[in-house]
Amino acid sequence: MAHYFGFVPSDKLKALITEAEQVVESNELVDYYPYRDALTHQTARDLIDNLLVGLVDIIPNPERQAAMRKVVGTVEKATDTLLNILLGKENNEEVLPSFHFLRDRATFIDNDGIKRIGFQLSDKDAMTVDKGFAAITPEHTDMKTFKTALETMNEETLTHFVSRYAETLKLGMIKRKSVPVAKAAIDKGMSMALNKLLPDLPDTSLNRLANYYRPFIVKKPE
After folding, report:
1. Model confidence at 65, in pLDDT bands (50, 70, 90)?
2. Cβ neighbourhood burial of 195 (10 Å; 0-12, 13-18, 19+)
3. In sequence order, which residues have a C-beta less than 8 Å from that of residue 156 and are 6 or more positions away?
4. pLDDT tens by residue, 175-219
5. How far apart are CA 5 and CA 73, in angstroms?
């Protein structure tokens, strides 16, 4: 079985995907980069919404909910800063590799025939994630193993949508060097979220958290 991480895109992202595909496939004599940039920004927003924003309601304490919202704001700001640095006017030939990445390497069809935003996990990471989710049940919770699974999932998601995607962009040396720096800032924010979220969560909330994330992991026959 192949393991994938992925989520169903928002209606806005679906519309942008369709629009970008139509523009590229029709060979319209228009600049592609505005479509690429809009698609990239909305993909980032969908990722943050699914990985972080959706967690706020799981936190039982209002003060920690407020702290979580601040963390989300930090991640959003770091992400916007990175994208504003990396994206911009390019000719259509230079933009196409980014389109191809988003189309071919950042989406997949799940077992119900629905297109998701995501990617295939390595066998090693899939085992870590499976083990982590299996460690949270109504009868027993192993927070350390579960946290390792979430950290692995977040790290691979950042690597794919930041590092690998950035490889498709035509960047100068200075901009290229900004990618790992910005990725580290986003990673720090997501780590803060886990460290603020997981400690002292009651078992019922840990199970809610695991159940929130479980639908993001899709197992498909290879």
Report:
1. confident
2. exposed
3. 5, 119, 121, 122, 125
4. 888 888 888 888 888 888 788 777 778 888 889 889 999 999 999
5. 23
- CA dist 14 and 29 (Å) reads 23
- Calpha distance 130→205 (Å, rounded): 19
Beta carbons within 10 angstroms of residue 20's beta carbon: 20
Q: Do the Cβ atoms of 42 and 76 come closer than 8 Å?
A: no
What are the strands of the beta sheet with 217-220, ordered from one edge? 107-109, 115-120, 2-7, 217-220
Handedness of CA 165, 74, 185, 65 (dihedral sign): negative
Instruction: Round to whole Å and give the CA distance between 206 and 214.
Output: 12
Beta 107-109 vs 2-7: how paired, if at all?
A: unpaired
Contact between 7 and 116 (Cβ < 8 Å): yes
**Beta-bridge partners for 4:** 120, 218
* Three-state secondary-structure class, residue 153: helix
